[in-house]
Amino acid sequence: MPLPHAATKDRQPAVAGQFYTNDPDALRLEVRGYLEGAERKSSVHSILTMAPHAGYYFSGAVAGATLGRANLAETVLLLGPNHTGLGKPFAVWPSGRWMYPGGALAVDSELVEHLCAHESRLELDTLAHQREHSLEVMIPFLAEINPATRIVALAVSQPDLATLLSAGKAIGRALRAFARPVSMVVSSDMSHFVTHELAQELDAKALDPVLALNPTRFYETVRGEGISMCGVLPMTLALAAALELGASQTEITAYATSGEINGELRRVVGYAGLIAS
User: Fold this and answer.
1) Per-residue H/E/C for 212-236
2) CA gap 207, 201 in Å, rounded
3) Nearest to 50 by CA among 183, 214, 197, 150
4) How many other C-beta atoms lie within 10 A of the C-beta of residue 162?
5) What pLDDT is attached to residue 7?
6) Whole-angstrom Cα distance, residue 77 to residue 107?
7) Sign (positive/negative) of CA torsion 92, 273, 159, 120?
8) Are 73 and 183 in contact (CB under 8 A)?
9) Fewer CB within 10 Å, N- or C-terminus of the chain?
């Protein structure tokens, strides 16, 4: 039975003209250029991909190298942090389209209903997404890779490890039971506002348990070491889901800091790309 929710609502861009250009032609050319920086596309289905979400000037190359390398399904579950603090702890955009300059990607309402039926903590909520940039900046990349991509957008602000692991396992089981293949894409930057050298050191510590597909050790490392990785919550959730989906191998596709772009090495943000299959 379909879930009761408000009328279909399109999600309008909140950061076009800030994080990326609002000129449709220039945007497509820029994104295409970043994607062309990827190694050849993986031959195996990408269960989980992580890419950064800063302004394209800073993180576009890492995002392109990662999303261009990933072998994504036509349906993508997008998971990102909630920078605004608005909305529900597990907020799912219900239906409609996610707009970007020059086009839109449709929400996979069938998957929305399937996920919410299998995990009651997922809630239909547009408020958490209205001003959140982390998933929006992924949309032009996904659209350039495959304009027929359908998405489900999930903003995660629930901080409890046990809850994240439980919900992640339930989402993984739901995706495994879904009629069509689904790829997960997590949007996250790494360390914030530390030196270039410290960012490299801390980010390596955070990525080590990700490469080992160990969500508990990942969460505890990021929290215990005080690593300012904004996507620790959605990544913990997605790692738990990926294990349910049989993920067994990982690769880092790219790593950089903002200091390598603007020359300011005393205060950087780290950007990493990763694929699990």
Assistant:
1) CCCHHHHHHHHHHCCCCCCCHHHHH
2) 10
3) 183
4) 8
5) 58
6) 10
7) positive
8) yes
9) N
Task: Tell how far CA 236 is from the center of its chain.
Answer: 12
Which among 196, 7, 172 has a CA at the least distance from the CA of 77? 172
Q: What letter does residue 76 receive in the DSSP assignment?
A: E
CA atoms within 13 A on the CB side of 23: 4
pLDDT of 3 reads 47
Q: Where are the domains of the chain?
A: 30-276
pLDDT of 8 reads 74
- Exposure of 91 by Cβ count < 10 A (0-12 exposed, 13-18 middle, 19+ buried)? buried
Q: How far is CA 236 from CA 47, 202, 223, in A?
A: 14, 17, 12
Pair of tokens at residue 91: 């907020």
Tokens in use for 3?
């879930």
d(CA 135, CA 140): 10
Partnered with residue 271 across adjacent β-strands are 256
Q: Are 105 and 140 in contact (CB under 8 A)?
A: no
Q: Provide CB contacts within 8 A for 105, sequence distance 6+.
A: 97, 98, 139, 142, 143, 147, 149, 150, 151
Closest CA to 70 of 33, 105, 45: 45
pLDDT along the chain (277 residues), means of 10: 59 98 98 96 97 98 98 98 97 98 98 98 98 98 98 98 98 98 98 98 98 98 97 98 98 98 97 98
Q: What is the pLDDT of residue 5?
A: 47
CATH code reported for the domain at 30-276:
3.40.830.10
Place of tokens 């903590």: 121
Contact 125, 91 (CB under 8 A): yes
